[in-house]
Amino acid sequence: MAPDWNWGYARGAAHDAAFELRQRLGRREDREKWIQDDSIPWDETVLCLALRIQRSCNYGRDAAGFGSVLDALAAGEYGSASAPNAALVGALSARLVEGLGQQEPGSDAEAIQRSLIALGFLEEGL
Fold first, then answer.
1. What whole-number distance in Å separates Cα of residue 8 and Cα of residue 13?
2. 25 close to 89: Cβ distance less than 8 angstroms
3. For site-directed labelling of 31, which of 19, 37, 49, 60 has its Cα 20 to 30 A away?
4. Considering the entire predicted model, what is its pTM?
5. H helix intervals, 1-126
6. Using an 8 Å Cβ cutoff, are 13 and 5 in contact?
7. Coil, strand, or helix at residue 34?
8. b/e per residue, 43-68, with b = 16+ CB within 10 A?
9. Per-residue pLDDT tens for 1-26?
């Protein structure tokens, strides 16, 4: 990530990108189209996931333990977020399988899509 990314701060590239993404995904219809779009850049998908996990944690709705994924993401443990990361996908898969009793995702994209759905992305947005 860029040095000015500043996860969790009110200034920086992350804040600006989050604002833009929230604007674009403000309506459920937009979120439903977005989550099915295979051309979404990986970094945007990861940003969406991080925002959704943050919101779920803030409202006390993280029974599956996605908050630990967000902590590791913010600490840079999953690389630059510009390309799929096996450790991130593995952590999401573990939350889905062990935390929610779902089947193992079949792809990187499916792991993020199903995680977003489990976190209430379609209903509540970012």
1. 11
2. no
3. 60
4. 0.86
5. 13-24, 28-36, 42-58, 67-74, 86-94, 108-118, 121-124
6. yes
7. helix
8. eebbbbbbbbbbbbbeeeebebebee
9. 555 555 555 565 666 778 899 999 99
